[in-house]
## 1
Amino acid sequence: MTKITTALGLLLLALAAAAAPAEEPAQQPAAQFDFHAPQGAADSAAPAAMRDLAERILPVYQDADRERYLDTLSVLQLAAGNYAAADDSRQSLRERRQGAKAGVDGPGVGLDLYTHAKAVEAASGVPFARAFKQAFHDTVSRLGDREAYGTLAWLGTPLPPLRDALQQSLDRLRGGDRVALEPALELIRAWLSYDVHGACAPLIEALAEEDDRRRYLAEATSIAGHDGLIQVRLVRPKAGPKPLPALLEFALAGDPGQARASAAHGYVGVLATADNVAVPFERDGEDVRAVIQWIVRQPWSDGRVGMYGDGYGGFAAWAAARHPPAGLKAIASSDAMVPGIDFPMQGRIYRNDAYRWAREAAGEAGGNDAQWRALDQRWYRSGRSFRDLDLVAGAPSRMFRRWLNHPSYDRYWQKMIPFQEQFAKVHIPVLAIAGYYAEGEAGALYYFSQHRHYQPDADHTLLIGPYDDNAARGTPPPLLRGYALDAAAQVDLRELRYQWLDHVFRNAPLPPLLQDRVNYEVMGANQWRHAASLDAVAGSRLRFYLDGTGSGDRLRLIQAPPKGVAAQQKIRLADRGDAELPAPPAIVGKAPTARYSLSFVSDALPQPLEVAGLPAGQLDFKINKMDLDLNLALYELQPDGTCVELFDPYEFRASYAHDPVHRHLLKAGERQQLKFTVERMSGRLLQAGSRLLLVLGVNKRPDREVNYGTGNDVSADSAADAGSRLKIEWYGEGSYIELPVRK
């Protein structure tokens, strides 16, 4: 069995158990505790420091909410090493929840197992591993499939993200010698989460395999595809009604654990992969339809198939939906890829990682990130055309070159998924999950907007929040690239997907979080909001113009149109002295220092401002080239100088800003306007006193193709075609950004 993995289980929230607040909670004392933060999880002083901190808190901790009190008490007792008392507290908590007829809490069960095993070890000297295995057998064998899977998924949480979360909690406290109660509790939970999973990691895989053999039937076969065999692996529950609906993921190299998760939820989980992956995207629709037709003929199938998947798996579902087979009844995808829209390019700008993806998908290459970054820099310094990237690597790729032959969204791409009016024929329910910080966000928004445009009453639901591409594999981490997620955003999105599928296939209630067509979390407000459409998310728009006045390297962002030239830029596109790759951006951190960019800052906001929706705008400029690649990023610049990124930087090619199908070149030497819509959504409540920071730049990076502005095929141009320096004059009176705001 492949090792159980999950996006992060319930992580730190699992230790809190998310109890409902009491009607009249007791006021916590405004306590401060002596504390000197250790360097990290590997610091030999860390266990003693955590124990000491927990022992200081225990005598003063109180809470009128009995469930929350018992849960936090057990966490403190565990951190303090008082395992018998912690075991008693967990037992009292279980009895209280059973009395309330609460459902089985998988993460809670996992923590119960750990606590009991530590108590047995401390009392009798039985080794922890033996005590844990015994507790596991005694408890998990009595659980239903779904509850057992939730417990195993939480126990199988990978350690690196937990270690990172602990490190960030420690870093926030470094430099002081006192800590308040709430950050102290947060730190102890982070420490305990890392400690628990570290102790269980060596044991859980074998225990999970044993439990799976008791619960499920696993089979493997192959069926004929369009060009070769399709490998099919399926997992189905031994117990329960038969036949069952099937949930299918079509992937390049899928995780059988996802099929097992479907079986745990009472479905037949099916994973299909094609032997021939030298030409991904082109024939997937036919192959997926062949798999669905095979499924509905099987004796264990009730004739209904739902498709799910992240990225490529989401694309495959839409590829099948171009000519929907009768058995396909639902699609539940996360950040589904749209070939020709968000891959192998974004904003019509090809990315170097498309070459890596093509090689790895065909099984032709491996290597670590450092090796691929070295290739990026070697190609960039050479000044050769983007079309020569594979030659610089010494490994030509027919697939990569085929993609480069189609820079427009032409017929080659259009025939892979529904195009325009074909979306009107997709009459099945769809759930799309996306993240403000996911590379696949543009794809999810494309499917949603096109489906709803050509079929206004389409049963297509979008859920979006502060997530990355891995969000739908479980509960998002509490810390994402330095940003602490609101409690409301820490939702088990994989479980939500199954709840929605239960609604479709079993007439279960619709999950409350999916109240309308667009459901989005407002960062900073700790709230979910709901709207009938993307246009309905924001009640109005707020316009800010680019103004050339300012101080230092920051120009102004103002609400009245200024006169004249706001700024000028001159860039040597042939220069190769900048081959170092920029650091991956943090969501929260210092103000960005993007290259070849201009920064515009607004006045302080007089009151909080809720930004929600897709920003848009216009650029008014004069340029000496016929094309231009741009990037745009928007931040909340908080009063303390911290920047919060509202969405991942948006990159786009000017000649395709209006129309991805047809290229419209710029007019060299003439003043002109260019309207644009950012293909990324954001939802955030900006603080009063914060400022807006807009960063507008020219895209010139070692990991992207370089647009030299000749008007020719960008991928064929080299540094020798750069000609004179790029010169841009930005006019403030016609250059603005429009923010969608909710009042």
## 2
Amino acid sequence: MASRAGTVAQPQDLVDLTALLDAYYDVSPDLSDPGQRVAFGTSGHRGSSLKASFNEPHILAITQAIVEYRAGQGITGPLYMAKDTHGLSEPAQNSALEVLAANGVHVLIDARHGYTPTPALSHAILTHNRNAAPGAPQADGIVVTPSHNPPGDGGFKYNPPHGGPADTDATGWIANRANELLENGLRGVKRIPVAEALAAGTTGKFDFLSSYVDDLPSVLDLNAIREAGVRIGADPMGGASVDYWGEIGERHHLNLTVVNPTVDPQWAFMTLDWDEKIRMDCSSPSAMASLINRMSDGAKFDVATGNDADADRHGIVTPDGGLMNPNHYLAVAIDYLYRHRTGWNPQSVIGKTLVSSSIIDRVAESLGRKLVEVPVGFKWFVPGLLSGEGAFGGEESAGASFNKMDGSVWTTDKDGILLALLASEITAVTGKSPSQLYKGLTDQFGDPVYARIDAAATREQKAALGKLSPSDVTATELAGETITAKLTEAPGNGAAIGGLKVVTENAWFAARPSGTEDVYKIYAESFKGAEHLKQVQAEAKALVDGVIS
């Protein structure tokens, strides 16, 4: 049977919203099943009410745990709360409000009764804390989103006063306490009805949209975009950025068209992802097929962009190159920004995850900038963005942020709207599309081939992979080249990577266990072509299997 990837979803692909919402309220988790307990990954707790992994008991327990965590940390300022367009997001926000209000927490929700992108929440937290008097109570936040995950999923994420994703110490404490509360039948959870919570004196409103949109000139050269007349097509992909894009165009007088303003918790308008699931992954050619086809059919846009459901990821489509590989765009963005942001700290470093393309290493060297390579997870970029010592941080999964023109912090969470608009600034200032500029980088530094594959692994094998040391790897060559590095810690900060990275002069691979499936992921890249990459992948799998079996 031919794959339906890239084709519009059919009725049988759509989540049953009634069943989804009923399960949220009616189903209680079986705590003997690890998959039904609270577990924070790199971006909070995620699951589905239909799988008993994201239900009201989870949210009540997590929220009470956050209340206790912030009290223990002395965080007494307002808690900003955002939600995206997933079907489970509003019920989860209501459940959280019941607990927060009962505990007397000052909560600020969207003044427009709309949806709030993750970067707008990060921006709000940082703005509040920057403007607060010395010693004044600090703000933090909660984002209710499973990011690009399918419509049947929900997500719940905590951002402490630094505005970015909570670190593992915080999420570990919150998850452990939440599971304790679940085990005790939610005894210890304070709660009032949602109507009372919304009417409580501690529940207020905040205009996330104006705070974010009106501050964009501090981080982007919108004058250049406007004066060049760059024609922008922005696709919110049914997500939280839907109202933001229209306001950005109107308030800043840009030639901007919102190509699809539809919000539908079933996402019936989406094209199916590679595995025939609905997934709002703006880095996937299959999920982005509608926008790509619009460009190839002659849409008069100089740049077209997509965002996932909470707008922390970006997809860049150009007339000459189609959908850009996220690694390619990161390299272009870094090269452009570090040449044009004269207000940044001249010593500011470039941050990348260790599974991002090595062309970034070569760009950094050409710029005379230090490269800091960290494990997967945007939380690792937070300190640098806050201090200005790391003015850009980016992940291979199309998530990045960078500092304001003056070098001060913009967001400490991924900002897909920002990176999408940057593509228009780049086009306006250079007169070239980001894909044309990437071609120039490959002419200078070589043209890498990059891919990720999954390999089957048991839970025990995944655990073994996560605990490897370099001495466990005895191989000296990879795909005909001498191995120059065997890494189980990130060279940028010494943090454990939870897997293995092996490097040669012209290639590398990294293997990491999946947190949700019985597979491990092999990221690999070669500057010697597609056939060499296949050899790297095959030898990588054999090497890892030999070590963990």
